[in-house]
């Protein structure tokens, strides 16, 4: 079959790799003119890494991943250690080490695996039509393309989603919900003044977070969470000024992180939004994948992993079901919507706990971190992984 994928991000690119390996003729379209991923890095937990292993990219992904052996929480004001523990149980229980990776590195790997002849950048979809036999896409430049089916991996503001949920026929458009905080992120050289180079270190206080994870190339992926209303003005010329205002009197490790940031090289600012879970992912020969289907806040680090799970489930459904395209897509959606909805809501609940929206609840979380042995935190991380379809029904060991 010929398959059109709209969106060249992690979800769209991984889907294209999987579908090409099944022998389909796949072309990926994206409105961006060059590969410039949004966000500096991402967490590939064991479920996401397993999908990449399945795609034949295991060694390459391991080379891109940071060596993250331990995890620790520190008091943001004093730098005092609240708790520290090994992440080895995650690997032991799930069968795969997790990796933080620089997003640009992963994106380049995926697009190379898709193949340049199958990727068309600078092509913005403006309309699509499904006549029951073929799906036809119209682009902003007036050109068109047709295929047997279309996968909409076109992100949080998905035009494909409008088609699938019938918003383009006058129905109610699915809108995003503000999560209550702004995230600043980027990459800096790894530095033990900030935290050990093999540890995920998070400073917490006042509903705010400052954290680093190791990625390949002796770098830290950093992020700061600042609870604030949506729409607070920001000019890139402001650089780290909002971070200095919010974190400038924090612990020495945080001050070292602030000093290491070069805004001209790596500093992103994004308001965090998500979408209420919905279960209409398929209409005829058109299906949603990734953020178009389940835009989630990053509070449990499962956004990219969910998109990779979608790829696995979609490919398996198309490979094993033979009634027809529409049937295979419906079975894909039926396998995915409940799990995705559950993780979207888990991330939302986690954000509410950590960002001080209810100060009593957040202080109770801080209190629970003091002296913790990590058992509960590991249980939560593994719990997010356990239900992945890539585990083939096998729970943790």
TrEMBL record:
Q: Where is the FAD-binding domain?
A: 2-345
Cofactor needs: FAD
- Reply yes or no: does the keyword Flavoprotein apply: yes
This entry's Gene Ontology molecular function terms read: FAD binding; FAD-dependent urate hydroxylase activity; urate oxidase activity
Its pathway, per UniProt, is: Purine metabolism; urate degradation
From the UniProt record, give one GO term of the biological process aspect: urate catabolic process
**Catalytic activity, reaction form:** urate + NADH + O2 + H(+) = 5-hydroxyisourate + NAD(+) + H2O
Q: Which domain of life is it from?
A: Bacteria
**One Pfam family this chain carries?**
FAD_binding_3
Q: What class of enzyme is it?
A: oxidoreductase
* InterPro entries from the UniProt entry: FAD-bd (IPR002938), FAD-dep_Monooxygenase_BioMet (IPR050493), FAD/NAD-bd_sf (IPR036188), HpxO (IPR047712)
Its Enzyme Commission number(s) read 1.14.13.113
What keywords does the record list, in alphabetical order? FAD, Flavoprotein, Monooxygenase, Oxidoreductase, Purine metabolism
NCBIfam families to which the protein is assigned, alphabetical: urate_HpxO
Protein family membership: Belongs to the FAD-dependent urate hydroxylase family.
Q: What is this protein called?
A: FAD-dependent urate hydroxylase
Recorded source organism is: Isoptericola jiangsuensis
């Amino acid at each position: 079959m010929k398959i059109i994928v709209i969106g060249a991000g992690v979800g769209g690119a991984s889907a294209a790799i999987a579908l090409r390996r099944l022998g389909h003729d796949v072309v990926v379209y994206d409105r961006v003119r060059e590969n410039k991923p949004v966000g500096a890095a991402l967490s590939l937990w064991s479920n996401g890494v397993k999908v990449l292993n399945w795609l034949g990219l295991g060694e390459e992904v391991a080379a891109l991943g940071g060596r993250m052996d331990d995890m620790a929480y520190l008091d943001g004001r004093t730098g005092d250690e609240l708790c520290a523990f090994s992440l080895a149980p995650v690997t032991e229980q799930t069968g795969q080490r997790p990796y933080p990776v620089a997003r640009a590195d992963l994106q380049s790997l995926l697009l190379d695996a898709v193949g340049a002849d199958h990727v068309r950048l600078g092509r913005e979809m403006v309309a699509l039509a499904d006549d029951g036999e073929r799906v036809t896409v119209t682009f902003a430049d007036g050109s068109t393309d047709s295929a047997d089916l279309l996968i909409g991996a076109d992100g949080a503001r998905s035009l494909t989603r409008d088609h699938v949920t019938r918003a383009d026929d006058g129905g109610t458009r699915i809108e995003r919900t503000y999560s209550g905080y702004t995230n600043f992120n980027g990459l800096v050289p790894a530095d033990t003044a900030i935290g050990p180079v093999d540890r995920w270190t998070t400073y917490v206080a006042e509903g705010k977070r400052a954290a680093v994870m190791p990625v390949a190339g002796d770098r830290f992926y950093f992020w700061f969470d600042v609870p604030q209303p949506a729409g607070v003005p920001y000019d890139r010329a402001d650089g780290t000024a909002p971070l200095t205002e919010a974190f400038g009197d924090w612990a020495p490790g945080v001050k070292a992180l602030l000093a290491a940031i070069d805004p001209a090289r790596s500093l992103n600012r994004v308001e965090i939004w998500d979408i209420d879970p919905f279960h209409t992912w398929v209409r005829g020969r058109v299906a949603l994948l990734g953020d178009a289907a389940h835009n989630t806040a990053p509070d449990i680090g499962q956004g990219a992993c969910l998109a990779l799970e979608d790829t696995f489930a979609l490919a398996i459904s198309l490979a094993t079901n033979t009634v027809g395209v529409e049937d295979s897509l419906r079975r894909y959606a039926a396998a995915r919507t409940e799990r995705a909805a559950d993780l979207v809501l888990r991330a939302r609940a986690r954000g509410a706990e950590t960002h001080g929206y209810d100060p009593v609840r957040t202080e109770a979380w801080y209190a629970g971190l003091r002296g913790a042995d990590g058992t509960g935190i590991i249980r939560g991380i593994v719990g997010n992984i356990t239900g992945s379809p890539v585990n083939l029904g096998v729970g943790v060991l």
